[in-house]
Design goal:
The complex is a heterodimer of chains A (315) and B (276). With 315 residues, chain A is an all-alpha fold. Helix content of chain A is 73%, strand content 0%. Chain A has 2 domains: 2-48; 79-306, MetI-like fold (Orthogonal Bundle). In chain A, α12 (234-249) runs antiparallel to α15. Chain A is globular, with a radius of gyration of 27 Å. The two termini of chain A are 25 Å apart. Helix content of chain B is 77%, strand content 0%. Chain B is an all-alpha fold. Classes of the chains: A mainly alpha (315), B mainly alpha (276). The interface between A and B is large, with 94 and 97 residues.
Chain lengths: 315, 276
């Protein structure tokens, strides 16, 4: 507010002082005091209302027994956290993330492989690139249905297997292990494309002369990968690892759409959503969300420490 | 030489295998969407060809009974406002951060940086209460405002572009008497066209595909968007896979068309968005 008045007060100054160059910087400087805030007003209002206020509230709720509706909040101290860490079924959901974490290791290796071979001269390159990337663009609900049909009894997978003479009446989504593996596979199908395109972009930004020079020195494809490509994609690789870890911890769409969290496929976010919106236990869902948030921030912090990323120079 | 040939063959085989893995599940759904109820009952297997390749009956059912028309309309409204708002807010923020020095600038930047790290799914428990207290629950404004307010990625994209616009242009305009807003509107904004295209594409696709936010905030059936309306197929069409498949194809088709038309922009956009 003081800024605006200041600006108004100085406004007439440029008029009389116009011929002299000296006052101009002074005016611009003062104007600069206020104008950026006018531009930042809307973004900040949104940022604070929908990102920071919820975080603050969430931390506050996690120390209460609030049900999300009643006007009264009872302060319960660290009780919720104690309940979260002592009731094993609330923490069990983290094991499910293990399936997705394992899948993302496979996903990164496969994406790296395809990015490497498609960075060389390959026939129908653009076709293969498009096919590998397209799943990432598909609506999650559509993917859920495509794969419900894929895994269902007599569905796509069974039909393909029977082409090879393998008859199975296995319920792919029937047991926890099989269901989680299947869902993690769907998640690889969906997200491989993004990793692949990121790696491909990083590899293609490596100057071509490097490969030529290496070839003259008698380096084979493996050497080229090991000594030219691998160092070149390190920043993107570390970013991908972070995205995979936080992604595995916050899986929601695919299991929720496909199984609704049944047969041991409930993930952390599904559980939190159910606690908060079905069982009205905001007081218990909040500490769960706080724990997840802290884990994700910790992982990111560790990554920033291990791989100092010079790309993040916003200021 | 032969070793090289073998390696090349294996490479192509792996690419063909990957292509099959990607396309088979989609092809099966496309085939199923063209089958009649009777064909489904006869159970020729998921990969059997439909009797009539031009049987669009299921599409009509999905479109009408699945309320796909109102879903597309709602999605279009959300897309329009959310993208418009994101472009304005993102470009203004980028302009303010890059072109001005002001007090607490470091803090402002840090606020945006940290917000980018917070996974949106975790905070929804509390965001819900705030949205609800504004009376925006079960109202198209809820997703619009949330999409606008939490998009850090597009701010990054705009920032990269604003930086590449020479400040001498600003200065020249200022000497002509242009104020900060005129400079933004007349000089910066028009030069941001490539960035705007990128943001529109990336934001458009992610908004079109989002399920979580409309699922939480738009429970009434009239306000179904693409994702939630398709999700509701699960109930009434239970085992009618031919209808569900038709619905899924209807949802995937626009994405495919956009992808085929704008491939280059899409790769670049998602690359920029992720590596920010």
């Amino acid at each position: 507010m003081t800024d605006t008045t200041e600006k108004a007060a100085v406004e007439p100054a440029p008029g009389p002082a116009a011929p002299a160059p000296a006052p101009v910087p002074r005016t611009t400087r003062l104007r600069r005091g206020a104008t950026p805030w006018l531009f930042l007003l809307a973004p900040h209002a949104l940022l604070i209302t929908f990102t920071y206020a919820p975080i603050a509230n969430m931390v506050a709720y996690s120390f209460t027994d609030w049900d999300g509706v009643s006007p009264e909040l009872h302060y319960t101290g660290a009780e919720n956290f104690a309940e979260l860490f002592t009731r094993p079924e609330l923490f069990e959901v983290f094991w499910v993330s293990g399936y997705y974490l394992a899948a993302s290791v496979f996903q990164i290796v496969a994406a790296l492989y395809f990015a490497t071979i498609l960075s060389f001269d390959v026939r129908f390159r653009n076709f293969f690139k498009g096919v590998l990337f397209f799943p990432y663009l598909i609506n999650g609900v559509a993917i859920g249905f495509v794969f419900l049909y894929f895994f269902q009894d007599g569905g796509t997978l069974d039909s393909v297997l029977s082409l090879f003479g393998v008859e199975t009446d296995r319920a792919w989504l029937g047991t926890p292990t099989s269901a989680n593996t299947s869902l993690a596979a769907v998640s690889v199908w969906r997200y491989l494309g993004l990793n692949f395109v990121l790696f491909l972009g990083a590899i293609q930004s490596i100057p071509g002369e490097l490969y030529e020079a290496a070839e003259l020195d008698g380096a084979n494809r493996w050497h080229q990968f090991r000594y030219i490509i691998a160092p070149g994609i390190k920043p993107v690789l570390s970013l991908t690892v972070i995205l995979s870890i936080s992604g595995s911890l916050s899986v929601f769409e695919i299991p929720y759409i496909m199984t609704g969290g049944a047969t041991g496929t409930e993930t952390f976010v599904i559980q939190t959503v159910k606690l908060a919106f079905q069982f009205n236990k905001t007081g218990l869902a909040s500490p769960a969300a706080v724990v997840l948030l802290l884990i994700v921030l910790a992982v990111t912090w560790v990554q920033r420490r291990l791989v100092p990323d010079d790309k993040v120079d916003l200021a | 030489m032969t070793r090289r040939a073998v390696a090349r063959t294996l490479m192509y085989l792996s690419l063909i295998a990957a292509t099959l893995v990607v396309l088979l599940p989609l092809a099966a759904v496309l085939l199923t969407s063209l089958k009649s109820e009777q064909e489904m009952a006869n159970d020729g297997g998921a990969l059997a060809l439909p009797d009539d390749l031009l049987n669009f009956h299921n599409y009509a059912t999905a479109f009408q009974d699945g309320r796909m028309l109102s879903a597309f309309a709602n999605t279009a409204v959300i897309l329009l406002f959310a993208i418009g708002g994101t472009v304005l807010i993102g470009s203004m923020t980028a302009y303010a951060i890059d072109r001005f020095t002001f007090r607490f600038k470091k803090l402002v930047v840090a606020l945006f940086l940290v917000a980018a790290l917070v996974p949106g799914v975790t905070t929804q428990v509390a965001t819900f209460q705030i949205v609800n207290s504004f009376g925006m629950f079960d109202n198209l404004w809820a997703p619009i405002v949330l999409y606008m307010g939490t998009d850090i990625v597009s701010i990054y994209i705009f920032l990269q572009f604003v930086r590449s616009i020479p400040t001498s242009l600003d200065e020249a305009a200022r000497l002509d008497g242009a104020g900060a807003f005129t400079i933004y509107r007349r000089i910066i904004f028009p030069l941001l066209k490539p960035a705007i295209a990128t943001v529109v594409i990336v934001k458009g696709i992610t908004t079109y595909n989002d399920f979580y936010i409309p699922f939480l905030y738009l429970p009434s059936e009239d306000l179904g968007v693409i994702s939630t309306s398709l999700f509701r197929f699960k109930g009434p069409f239970g085992a009618h896979w031919e209808t569900i498949s038709a619905g899924a194809v209807l949802v995937i088709l626009p994405t495919l068309i956009v992808f085929l038309l704008l491939q280059r922009f899409i790769y670049n956009g998602f690359m920029r968005g992720a590596t920010r």
